[in-house]
Amino acid sequence: MQNSDLIWDLVDNHRTEFEALSDRVWGMPEIAYTEYRSVTEHTAMLRQQGFRVTENVAGIPTAVMGEAGEGGPIVAILGEYDALPGLSQEAGVAQPRPLPGNGHGHGCGHNLLGSAAMLAATAIKDWLEKSGRPGRVRYYGCPAEEGGAAKSFMAREGAFDGVDIAITWHPSAFTEVARALSLANTRMDFRFTGRASHAAAAPHLGRSALDAVELMNVGVNYLREHVPSDSRIHYAMLDSGGIAPNVVQATAAVRYAIRSRDLKGMQELNERVKQVAQGAAMMTGTTVHISIMSAVSNLLPNRPLEEAMQRNLERLGPIPFDAQDKAFAAKIQATLSEEDINNAYRAVGIPRRQETPLCDFIVPLDVRGEPMIGSTDVGDVSWVMPTVQAHAATIAIGTPGHSWQVTAQGKMPAAHKGMTHAAKMMAATAIDVFSDAELLAAAKKDHQERVGRTPYVCPIPADVTPPLQARPKEAA
Ligand SMILES: [Zn+2]
Which of 279, 262, 255, 256 has its CA nearest to residue 228? Predict the structure, then answer.
């Protein structure tokens, strides 16, 4: 019997209780840094499985860590459980139908993400006990992936110190070893201060902060032509200075998200956007206060770990979806456009398969698609240690990320199959690391070569702390 066969049995032994955990978290959607009920569920499960639990990781009340095993290398399995605002949706129906409540919903599948990660960690813990091998596994319950950059703060506070390898996954339309492609991203606020005055009687005495915001946005729109083509700059108005057009607006604020291929490129772009803001302030006789709210790094690949995970996936095979799974996925696909579905195949880099709405195959390691790239705080972990991510199919092909359709599919049998599959991909790869010192050494060497010339510097300034939220009344 190969190691992987035993570890897969150990995953299957626990799958029912972790599917139930995922469903419970789906039913209590909590957004960035308010995940008090979800972290309570995860902490209770860690205790029930016999992990040594550390709460309040990095001073964040909704972060938790559980460790098991003794000595040896340390493998971290990263989980998440935050939801998104505005994506409330009844499960198992293929039409938009929000549930009563706060409007939040698990529109990115993080209920599955956290549960499968802890399922993998639990199976690894069982394997370490059975095999008697030295080694430790840690499950990190990481909050606020959506815009909160919790892992970046956790990395900065040393929460991952001593860990040798990090493994994680994300729910997806396809089953594959994830390509490490994401953009470094900074969220920066620009608050302009001018002088109020009567806009008709004494306009010459006013200095408009709103004009400054508008000029800054115009300036950045011109800047866009002269930045690398994979950079992304977006903005949202925080404060337009009030609703009275007859008052010169004394304050106004705009939030920017600035994304770039790597940390260095992002720092350069940040400076250029700041200069545009200074220019807007000069033109309008206002002042600008600039503050970074959060930032994440780009993802670094790790070839040896990706190859190890791919070998495990090929032995494991595709997810065994059945006719019922496909029938519901077909109903979801009926709510999508042809372009949604074609785009999903184009992104992953394989020809469209008309015959199935669900990924009942596996994607080869080196296909070249046109991945749609966003940003993730796993990026910072990948700068601190060798990191690998799985994707397992939990949603119909073409389902847009962050949509009601993701929430609707989050408790279906297909999603449960996907999360178990992800747990097996992650757990088997961890076992390889414990069993094969050469793999561990190769992963570290690959990592060292990537960061060697540009060592990790946390992109969040030292004085910026996570925007922690008080425990909501309903979670007390
Ligand atoms: Zn996500």
Answer: 262
